[in-house]
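User: Fold this; tokens only.

Assistant: Input:
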Amino acid sequence: MTEKTILRALKGEILPTPPIWMMRQAGRYLPEYRATRAQAGDFLTLCYTPDLAAEVTLQPIRRFGFDAAILFADILLLPQALGADLWFTTGEGPRLSTIATTQDVDGLKPVDAIHETLAPVYETVRILARELPAETTLIGFAGAPWTVATYMIAGRGTPDQAPAHALKAADRAAFQALIDRITDGTIEYLSMQVQAGAEVVKLFDSWAGSLRGQDFQDFAVEPARRIIAALKARHPGLPVIAFPREAGAGYIGFAKATGADCVALDNSVTPEWGAANVQKDGCVQGNLDPAHMITGGAALDGAVRHVLHAFSKGPHIFNLGHGITPDADPENVARMIAVVRGG
């Protein structure tokens, strides 16, 4: 059997038609997702019920035929497994108990205790490994330590990650201890996803763009490097995608510094800039503006062709620059895929 297209791109092969998948491709823009979400009753039940989590992961594959499926879960399941209280407030998003001191970090569960809580996630991966089409790559994922830490410190998402920056400035030792605990937990979590059947893993550092200077090196680059090195030592040949969102100039050299096989780019940088500065080091993923999934039309077609052309001289996985939004039109997703595949 010919190797899957995403695995070929991740090895550096330049393909005439790039493989395509989409961040948050299982989500609220799809009526079938909303129906399954209603069946689950609440978001965490959906995440922790393997049959339902596998179902919503499979839905966009059935509908669109993407080249990859990404495990349906949430980056905050790991903090919960480490002992943080986690709940979701309707219309407002996640809430967590907060971390403010070294003692709070010491009060978290040891890393080897996470698997009991996360066992349903591993079962979801096993179901997907059995049920996905043979040509579809299964991607596992986790939040990167900095991004996860911002939620654990603030107890919620924040527009500027100010509570995490404040703790980092006031008590760097406590902050570093939290980063280290999350890093170690992430290694174990992703390793178990690979053992269960994930073929690729992705690290989402959604708030990397708010780190500056040495902080970017210490808390975006170094944890990613540690995680990737550990995973590749345990699982030789495992491809890893890193997404330090809105890193700007920090994207340059990120693959070499961390060992990532592919760097995902957000849409705050142009495809031409990404090709010149990031793709020269290997595979890139991205970076269509998700707004086109709402507006559609000829502008969508032109934007897709623009991304395709800019990245055509190197290894490329087509994707959005960030996750698809709930108000997107599924017809525009189908249209995007048709253009990518030559329709």
